[in-house]
Predict the structure.
Amino acid sequence: MIINVNALKEFKDNNFEEEISFDEESYKYSFPIVKINHCLAKAKAKLLGEVVEVKLDINADLTVKSSYTLKEFIYKLKTNETYYFSADNNDNDDVLPLKGNAIELDRLIFNLIAASLPIRLVDKGEKLPSDGDGYRVLTEDEYLKEKENEGNNAFSCLDDLTFDDEN
């Protein structure tokens, strides 16, 4: 999706809507995203003096991997964000640099999708795996308690040593 900044001055209604498609290279290294099946981006752009405000609304259907089992499932995502662009090179971290007269939004849309995913993605009805062959699943509290009671095996032979008291 590209917004022409010069066109913002001419039109009062600056609403944009576009189906965005991403090639496989876009999400190749973006775990847990396997594929972006469908992405509808709606943008509302407004010129505020020298700053361009762009409000994005994203509706996407993603194929993602489960945090628990790594099985793939469909995840529907709705998210929104407001971005500000300016040609002035001020040191404001909230304002993105505007180079030329066009704002390319596809990379921002992808980054917004990736950042909006929950940390723990699980399919409906999916449960944390239980113990299995060669592994155990512990809560953090169980792990810490077990580690505290375990001690250091390298020094366990010293537990049986006795010393004569020197008085």
